[in-house]
What does this fold into?
Amino acid sequence: MDTPETKRASRKIWNYTPNLPLNMAPYWDWPARPVASMVYLLQSWNPAGLRFLILIVAMAVWTWFTPELTRMKTLQAGWVFEIWVRNLILLVTVAGGLHLALWKYRTQQDDYRYDMRPMAKGAKVFYFKNQVWDNMFWTLGPALAFWTFWECLMWYAYANGWASMITVQSNPSWFVALIVFIPIWAGLHFYWLHRLLHVGKLYTWFHSWHHKNINTGPWSGLAMHPVESFFLMFDTMIFFLLPAHPVHVLFLLLHHGIGAPTSHAGFENIKLGKVGKFALGDFFHQLHHKFFDCNYGTWETPWDRWFNTFHDGTADGNELVKERRRKIWLTKS
It folds into this structure.
């Protein structure tokens, strides 16, 4: 038995972390902090950042890589297949490219890597006994199919007048406001869907598939049970209630389609040259995969703080999670 003098040093959990403690967006602070909120908003929309890049991709996809709405007034396999192929290319480019660069060819070695454990091989918990192959199967199968389903449903709705479509010229203020709102809406949907999937049999039957990935890579982001895949992008149905431009639809869909592979990449940044870097990862969500019952949402929505499930990444945060877990087990015993 260890004595106080011989107590072992605590095991190092992370190879790299961003600056800690993590802070959530100040939008929801009380008393209100309007200056801090505006500064945060401007930082989150950094033109050299991931969010702005996703918006640019959404605009490019709508302009050059989406069939004409007139074709989509009737359901036809041709235009649906075109969208599926385009989404496949996006997924393979983002998730596959990041996997090859960061995990296979290790272009930046372990710089900015959160967890030093490798992708699992020979593990029976994964199909094909291989974490990457398992993740690719569920990503390129059900996840890609349901992404395409929700997108095609929206185009069919716009083409038939079931959803209200705006133009930039007709309502520029609403166009910009909705772009700012979409990440917050995505975070709200994700928190409540995610929290529900951690309840009882819903976790056992469905969400546990995703949590096989304790250490995550780019292909892990959309690797989940088909039921979870189906509801992940259900948040696009808000556009049946809110007038929007097709770019808004794509921006929300790409938050999941591109955001999931990047947030699960396992690295905080991509190195650009000797000193440059591109912010990529999501340590907030990495903590969820490590500790399971914390950080259900995103740092941009208040729910984890309000419901006491926020882990700020520090040792004190680890202890808070352990204490909350202990109380839960006491109530069950």
